[in-house]
Amino acid sequence: MSTRETTLTRHLLMQQQASPGATGEFSVLMSQIALAVKTIAYDLSRAGLVDILGATGDINIQGEVTQKLDRIANDAFLQAFEYGELVSDLVSEEMEQPAQIQGNTDKGKYVIFVDPLDGSSNIDVDVTIGSIFSVHRRPAGSGDDLSRALHLPGRQQVAAGYALYGPNTMLIYTTGKGVHGFTLDPRIREFLLTHEDIRIPSRGSTYSINEGRRLEWYPSTRGYIDYVQQKDKATNRPYSGRYVGSLVADFHRTLIKGGIFLYPADPKNTNGKLRLMYECAPLAMVIEAAGGRASTGTQRILDLVPTALHQRVPLLIGSSEDVTLAESFYK
Ligand code: FBP
After folding, report:
1. Ligand 1 center to 63 CA (angstroms)
2. In this structure, which residue's CA is closest to atom 3 in ligand 1?
3. At what angle are helices 247-257 and 281-289 packed, to 10 degrees?
4. Angle subtended at Cα 79 by Cα 78 and Cα 85, rounded to the nearest 5 degrees
5. How far is the CA of 275 from the centre of ligand 1 (A)?
6. Is 115 in the pocket of ligand 1 (CB under 6 A)?
7. pTM assigned to the model
8. Rg of the chain over all Cα atoms, to the nearest angstrom
9. CB-based contacts of 11: which residues, under 8 Å, 6+ apart?
10. C-alpha 252 chain-centroid distance
11. DSSP code of residue 139
12. Could you tell me the mean pLDDT of each successive run of 10 residues in the chain, 331 residues long?
């Protein structure tokens, strides 16, 4: 193996050298995130062989049954930031309140929002799942009411990204300038740069939505999906339907190939299903940095000011032309 291949560490150092005033702290933070991802990938690779599949018997803040692997993944992130004095608190899909990172009490200029294991419904059936993360600066003077102080719009994210646990383990991140993808090399357990400066095509030919909810959909959603399913050569329709049921997997395909992913609101889920601060906002930062678009149908995801840490919002995300066209059905 050539040592000339660009590892994550080398890439971060090069980015750091290119950024005047960079302190190196962000590089350390990303290596902590990479450690959590490697730990989770290892546990997942043994999932069917040891007793870590199935439920814990507990119900999380979302009202969902907590899977053993949800907890293992959550602990991996909590432990990865310990004693680094970089991250003061972690907000997670698996925890109602922000957790102070051990050894960093009142220290650390960053707060991390994380969906430790996305696509839980696919864990036991060995389908691609992932982790999603969002990095914010710890708000100054947040004092006792940290939860409220953390209602920060997505446009204030310092960085965001996700990991994929599929045929390969991948790590994709952005600081707003370029989206970069790394693949874990099992020979040396290092992330190698395999997808530099990812750009999403301005238009795609696939749509991704849970069609099992068609009878629940508002007319706007039904109108748009009917439109992409109609035959019209000039506009490359009908589009193909693709739906894994793991947000990270459906998002990653959309990022690389183009097209659109939708988890809209409907009369039953009046705010949709996906969580703003650790699912929609981080993926919106990635898609915009890659030239795409993300909205609720009527509002830019990155401009939304959260009113709760675990708030849900409708999501339309993908190629700029496809999302703009879909929005015309919601307006
Ligand atoms: P979690 O697994 O992190 O709770 O995420 C929610 C999720 O599984 C997404 O990954 C996915 O896009 C969506 O729910 C699938 O929902 P549905 O089963 O309603 O289509």
Report:
1. 13
2. 118
3. 10
4. 90
5. 10
6. yes
7. 0.97
8. 19
9. 180, 182, 193
10. 10
11. P
12. 81 93 93 98 91 81 83 96 90 94 82 95 92 94 77 97 98 97 96 97 98 96 98 96 98 98 95 97 98 98 97 98 98 80
